[in-house]
Every structure is written in structure tokens, then in C-alpha cells.
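Researcher: I need the complex structure. Ligand is magnesium ion. Inputs:
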Amino acid sequence: MAKKLARKTSRPAPRGSRSAKPVSKPARRASGAGSRESTVARRGGKYVYFFGRKTDGNGSMKPLLGGKGANLAEMCRIGLPVPPGFTITTEVCTYYYANKRTYPPTLRKEMESGVAALEQQTGKKFGDLKNPLLVSVRSGARDSMPGMMDTILNLGLNDQTVDALATKTGNARFAWDCYRRFVQMYGDVVLGVQKRPDEDHEPFETVIEQLKHERYHQDIEDTKLTVDDLKELVVRFKGLIKDRAGKQFPSSPWDQLLGAVGAVFGSWMNDRAIVYRRKYNIPTEWGTAVNVQAMVYGNTGENSGSGVAFTRNPANGVKEFYGEFLINAQGEDVVAGVRTPEPVADLKKAMPKAYAELERIRQTLEKHFKDVQDFEFTIEDGVVYMLQTRNGKRTAMAALKFSIDMQKEKLIDWKTAIMRNPADQLEQLLAPVFDLAEVAKAKAIASGLPAGPGAASGKIYLNAERAVAAADKGEKVLLVRIETSPEDLRGMIAAEGILTARGGVSSHAALVARQMGKVCVCGAAAVDVDYQARTVTVDGRSYKEGDWMSIDGTIGKVYAGQVKTAPSEIVAGLIEGNEEAKKTEKFRNFQQLMKWCADATRMSVRTNADTPEQTANAVAFGAVGIGLTRTEHMFFEGDRIDAMREMILAETLEDRKAALAKLLPYQRDDFAGIFRALKGYPATIRFLDPPLHEFLPHTKEQQAELAKSIGVPAARIHQRVQGLHEFNPMLGFRGCRLGIGYPEISAMQARAVFEAAAIVQKEGIKVRPEIMIPLVAFKKELDLQIEVVHQAAREVQSEQKVKLNYMVGTMIEIPRGALTADEIAQSAEFFSFGTNDLTQTGLGMSRDDSGSFLPHYQELEIVKKNPFATIDDTGVGQLVAIAVTKGRATRPNLKLGICGEHGGDPASIQFFEKVGLDYVSCSPYRVPVARLAAAQAALSTKGGD
Ligand code: ADP
Ligand code: MG
Ligand code: MG
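Model: Output:
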């Protein structure tokens, strides 16, 4: 590669060239690069940007200069002490791959003037035998990217210049330390001398270790190696390189430089970089830049050092100087963990002047970048130099505190503060937490998917019944199942947390966990659950029912034994009304953020809730209504399931009505509780939706038990279960098809809603039921059900002598429904997009069966994201957009919402803002996330005005 770069390429220059040769085909075919080339041509083919005394670039040029290069330029512009250098642009990378790994013909010249500028500014000369200039070669994509070539320091050293450096500095040890580091780094990253699969250690480290043992018979610190030791290391390193790479170590500084630059561009296409780009959707065309920068030395002695720091604490957000440093070290030592660094605050004593300078820099950085910076510095003989800065990564907790504090400090405005909180991380703030000291003592035994964030500790139980019994006795319970089903609901409610051996983030366990704010780890494959023996075996060790286990649903870890937890201050304050919690800074900051969100948002946020408790929680989190109550969830609780089963097993209308009459009071009470908890907010109530067989017992024993309790022959139950069997239940007898087949079911549900409404309204609370008919594909389906609802309303209003304010609408979850939305809107007063089913029916893909192919599809990038988690905006999204347009054309004031799982997903919320929905609805503990995401969507859609 070095050769290729050195050799002036004969490939004709891109557009604008006077070359007589015709443009060769391959260059033209590379269309992506072609358009870039024309940009370059317009700019006059500038491939190298200086920074230092004269600075060509600035911080906004990340696409061209990479993140590192753009910010180095920006720091120069604001007068921070940055060693001079130049950036080779990302366009060179693009050119390189578009032109069979060759370079633009003018590059070498530009690099030569780059080096000349460095020489001029430093008074040193590249390869000089009196005062040699050394440089670092650093890769730099737009964002730092694993897989890219590691940095090379001290480039320019060889057997001659090392002596010059020693003489010039009067410090031979330092010079040889630089040289051995350089040979080691260059051998590793450019010449590929790395650990082989059969080796435990890096080969260069092995050489160092051998020498230490030969000469000192023990492991001594690197800083104790003498000049002679270091000289010997250089010799041995070169031998190792010759052996392994079959190449001589290049001694000409220009060969070294060209080789290193070539290696950076080459690393853009290595496997790790490709995999990383695929994972994070980074286009290959972006390319990487290369930075060549004059060295400063942190390894000249006790008055030098190197460190990394944050302008504020990125873990908890506290405004304090945070970071670490090493005395007498070069940059890579700090992260490599060769020596343990010291906290940056200790510099105050060790080097007070340098510390004061760093404090000044810390202030300047924040004032200028207006965000928390993560930066690298080196101190050479007491003088501070800046080598990098970027926006610091942070936890949700730190993000919240940074945003609130910086708004107070007037560094940012409140809208920017909203944008600074990553919506998909906000849930971390609500999760109960493990005591950190306790976790350190615990034993991690397995891991699975982090499905419900937070920490839970409890005695394990393997079925719902025993879990409930134990919880009733006051035990803390962890429900452990192979997977969960609606029958486990009671156990899940009783448990502190849920652990399953199978199932993904959209499995039943995960769904319920999110809705209830339960801690959940699912799909922990190493957990072997034996229902018969009532044991859980992990890695050969067995746990009985009643043994303690703990799970961390934020990271997906399973621990043996008990680990102490506490609820998050935000939950304690909002839901438990804990006054102490309300005084905490975390709570107050959270409330401030939510208030800003309320000011910024256009869409409102409702909740998916089935019980008064869930509803109250959601309202406490700021939900302004229910977007979806799944009435069938109520049928599983207590002995209601028996009445439900009686209804299903009934053979005559009379019997069915009798069973329904038993269910009515339960439903009425549930609805009344929900209406009270809503305090006047609207409630969208969906009528019975799932296929009936889901309510029936499937094992022989359970069927026999049911037969006994409701007094019918077991054979009949068996027969009915068989009769209800469907080949494809998702597309079968369900949704409004049930209500059309058995209008008496809808009539009972409508009556329960209206009777509850009448009761609560008489208590002086406003009630706004919105009855939602599921799975509508034809207007006529909706019309038939609306008539049943109106009939019940008329009856109850006249019986109770009240006037009720209600609406009837439909769920749009079938493509035909979306496409005929103009017709359906003639009858529907509102639409709620059921994006779970709309995705299933729109893609013709069963969510519950997608586990066998969807992960592969994601790997192949057939789908970019799981369409059941983030809405497929180009496909399913069109159905939503069509229904919005057609629906509003018929009925301009049509109310539009979404109640699928996507309602709590920030990326999907962005889409719903764009198509103009009125609200999103999500599970109660997801409400704050949705409020934040909706506010951010409004700000970014409006352009943050
Ligand atoms: P990374 O992206 O892995 O952090 P960097 O290019 O930032 O790689 O460099 C790695 C280390 O080398 C950093 O600690 C940096 O400060 C140090 N370093 C890079 N260039 C120089 C230089 N010109 N002088 C001194 N140290 C440098
Ligand atoms: Mg760095
Ligand atoms: Mg549905």
C-alpha cells in the first residue's frame, strides 16, 4: 500500500482534468464516488486541511474531516493549545476505494506541503539528524468507530533519528522509549504482527516480559527499563517483525508515513469495521479521514503525563472535573491498563500550574461546545496540550442532570435541554435499582434479554398459583417460567420480577412486564426449568422453589441469591407519593423535563391499561387518557374465567346470555374503577378481540377440573375446544367477527361500559368512554356493531336517567380497513391504529412465529429494524398515512391515535408526528419515554423553532 501511495498513479484525474487520455470506465462506474469527485473538483481538489497556526477546517466539517479532525481544527480556532497537524479528508478514502486502491495524484504533493508546514511551525524537520519531527497518525471517521486502525505515535524515528532525539533532549531513555513504542505499534497495526489464535499474549508484550525475566528475574514496571533494555527491545522487535511479517521494518520516515496512512484507509474495509457499520447503519461512502499531527511527549519524565477527562461526571451528572491521568506516560498507556491511572483531581497537587490550565480549558470547552466534553490531553514538561475533544457519552441519569443544569447556567435553552435526553434511555431512570455494593458481591449465573428494566430479587416459583400463594404470605417472589402465557398473569402481577428461559423482547412475558413496569429477563437459555421437579438448573447447579435469585432487567443478568433493591426516586415520588423522594434532585429534574415536554409537544400521550391501578400509574406519569383497554385481560382474573368459559361453552342463546349476565358486573366494576382513576380523561375501550379458544383449558386435567366446577361433561369441553381449533387463529374468528357472530357479547360489554359511566358520572366525575370495534375491514362490520352499542346506550340512559357523552370508533389494523378509511370514517368517530396487527397483516408476517426468520432478515438487512418494535415507515407507514388522509377527507375532525407497541417507541413516535396523529398510547411505565419522544418529534419536525 505504501508503494501504491508513493508511486504517482497514472490513473487519469477526475473531471476537470486536462489529461488527453479518456476517462477509464471503472472510475466512471463508481457512481457514488463520482458525485464526490465532482464536489472535490469544484473545491479545487483540496485533500489536505491544516490545523495549527493556520487552520483550514472547523468543527462543522465532520463529514469531510472526520470527528477528530474537525474538532482539532475547532479547538485551534478557539485558541486552545493543540499540536499542529493536518487532516487527509474522507474524500481520499472514497477515492481510494472507487479507484482500485490508488490515491488522487495530487495527494503526495499536498502531504509534502502539510509536513513542511509542521516543520515550519515546530522548528523541527521530518527525518532530521539534529532535531527530528515526529508525528502521530490517527484515524478519524465521523464518529469514533471500533475496527478502525489504532493510532501510531512517534512516527519518524529510526536508528539515526533516535540518537538525534536523545542528544537534542538530553534524555536518551525518553528517546529510546519512544522508539520501542513506535516499532511496537507500527509492527502491530501496520504490519499486522498480532496475537495468533494459539497465543495468550500479544507477541510484543511477550518479548518485553522475556527480557524483564532474563535481566531482572521478575516483572518490573516499564518505566524502570533502562536505555540499554530499550535498545535491546528495539532489536528484538525488529526481529519479530522480520519473522512474522517477512518484512524489514521501514526506516525512511516517508515510507513509514505512507504505510501508516495506507493502513488507515485499508482498515475502513476490514471485517470488524464492516460489521460495525452494518450494525449501526453507517454508509460505507462516508469513509474515514486520517490525521497527521506533530507529537508532544508525556513520557519525558516526572513533570509530564497524559490523561483523559470529562468536563462533568458522565455517570451521575455532577459538575465536577472527572477523569484520570498517568505521570510519565504516552496517551495509549492510560486506556491500555498497563498501569493504573490516578484521578485527575490529584494533578492539583502534583502539577498545580498544569491543573489550573486544564481547569481553564474545561471551562472554555463547555462555553464553546455547549455540551459536556470528553477530551484527551498530554502534559509535556509542565505544558498542557489538547489532543482530542468530543461530546461525552453519558448515562440517562447524567444526561438528565446535564440538561437541567446547563439550561440553568444559560449554556443551552430549554428546547435544547429536551433534545439532550435520549428518549430510549429514559426508562433507566424509573427502574428499581440494585445496591451497587451488593451487586459486586453477587454471583452472575446467566444472561438473557433485558426485557423489563430494573432490578428484582425474590424466591423463585415455577408457576403462577404457587407464586401468588407465596406472595400472599408476604414473600418476595421471582416467577421463573420456560415462557409465559395469559394464564400466568396473576403470578406475574404477584412477582417482583419475571425470568423466562425462552422468548424475545416481544414475547408475552416482555410485553406484560413493560405494561406493568415489571422487571423481566427473558430468553435466558442457560436456565433449565423443570416443572415436574420444581427446580431450576443453571450450569450444573440446581435451585429449588423458595431459593433466592435476582435479575437485572436493565442489562439482562441473572444472579444467584438475594441482592438488595430500592424503587427509583421518580416512581417513589409520583406513584407512591413518597415525600422524601420528591425532594431528591433526580425527582425534581425529571419533573422539570416533563414540564418542558408538555410545553413543546403537539401530540398527547395516552396509555394502554386494563386496571385502575395501571391507569392511575399512567396518569401519575402524565398520560391524558387511555388509548387502549383490552377488555379480555379482565376475563382472566379470579373466577371470572369460569363465567367466560361457561359463555363459550353455552349451546343456546339463553345459556350464553345467562353466562354473560355473570360477567357483566365484573366488567362494570372494572370500568368504573378505570373511569375514576382517569379523573375525567377519555378511555378507549376495545371490545372482545382474541379467538375464543385462548380462554379454554387445553390439558386433559384442566378440562376435567373445569367440567367439575361448572357441571358439564368433560367430553363436551373437549369437543368444544376441538371445535374452536383454527388453522390460523390470528386471521380467524376474532375481533369484530366475534361481536357480529354473537351480538349479545358486544351488547353486554356496551351495557357494562354505560352502566359504569352512569355510576361514576353520578359521583361527579366526568366520564368519556370511546368504544372501539377491533379488526374492522368493511364499513358494514362497524355499522352492525355501532347499532348494538347505540341500543345499549339508549337503554342505560333511559334506565339511569343520565345523558352520557360517548364515541364509537374503530381500530385500523387490517390493510383493507386502512385503504377504505374514507368509507369507514363515515361511521367511525375516531381511528386508533392497531399497528401490531397492521404490521402482521401488512407484512403477512406472524409476530409470534417471526422468531425463526426475522433475526436472519435483520442480519441480511432485508429489514433494518424489527418491524414489530419500530414501525416499518415505508410500508406499513403508508397504510397509516393513507388512512389518515382518507379518514380526514371524510371527517375533518376525526380523532387519530395509535395503540400498538410502536406507541412507546421513539423512532415510531417521530413517524406518527410526521403523519399528524393526535396522540400515541403506550404502557404506563413507557409514558414518560413517549412524552419525551413526542416533544422531541415536535421540536425536530418544526425545526426546533
Ligand atoms: P483513539 O481514537 O483510540 O482515542 P487517538 O488518535 O485519539 O486514538 O490516540 C490515542 C492516544 O494517543 C490518545 O491518548 C492521544 O491523546 C494520543 N496521541 C495522539 N496523537 C498524539 C500526539 N500528536 N502527541 C501525543 N499524543 C498523541
Ligand atoms: Mg482518542
Ligand atoms: Mg389487534
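Model: Summary of the prediction. The chain is about 45% helix and 15% strand.
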